[in-house]
Write a structure and sequence with these properties.
The chain is α+β, with helices and mostly antiparallel strands and 173 residues long. The protein has helices at 26-41, 129-142, 153-172; strands at 46-48, 58-61, 74-84, 88-95, 98-108, 110-116, 122-128.
Length: 173
């Protein structure tokens, strides 16, 4: 497994709609392994392929927070929200492509998602709580949407300026 560099906003690739995955290959399985390793290393609870510069409809996530519980790594290919609750939840979201910036985002409290697994079989699951927030956040990435796109323009511009400065500082280091 290889840790992959995570793109930092603003990067034009983060604003593009990712292409559907047409076939599950060994390269795709390797990418899934790399993405999980990169996500755990970051550390994060979700990572979408565009965040590592691959414009494909694939995401990984694991929202198990309890140290005593076994991890639950998930790989979702071509995921789609097929149902969402009318009930809403507000979570303070962050993003590996927007490090150290957090903001409250309102989303459906529960969603049902359908996707293809690495085995090529269709799957579906209903997610709630942190899992629901995470899967919606990552699916947004596949559609070129960042969590800051839900914020008021002034707050979004402030965070974007901080990211531009962070990238400049990292380039100098």
């Amino acid at each position: 497994m290889t840790l992959r560099p995570i793109l930092i906003h603003p990067d034009p690739r983060l604003k593009k709609v990712a292409d559907p995955v047409s076939e599950i290959t060994d390269d795709l399985r390797r990418l899934a392994d790399d993405m999980l390793a990169t996500m755990y290393d970051a550390p994060g609870i979700g990572l979408a392929a565009p965040q590592v510069g691959v414009l494909k409809q694939m995401l990984v996530m694991d929202c198990v927070k309890d140290e005593a519980a076994p991890p639950r790594p998930m790989v979702l290919i071509n995921p789609k929200v097929v149902w969402s609750s009318e009930e809403r939840n507000v979570y303070e979201e962050g993003c590996l492509s927007i490090p150290e910036q957090y903001a409250e985002v309102e989303r459906p409290a529960e969603v049902e998602v359908a996707w293809t697994g690495l085995d090529g079989k269709p799957q579906a699951e209903r997610f709630s709580g942190l899992w629901a927030t995470c899967v919606q956040h990552e699916i947004d990435h596949l559609n070129g949407i960042l969590f800051i796109d839900y914020l008021k323009p002034l707050k979004r511009q402030m965070i974007t300026r901080k990211m531009v400065k962070l990238k400049r500082d990292r380039a100098r280091a």
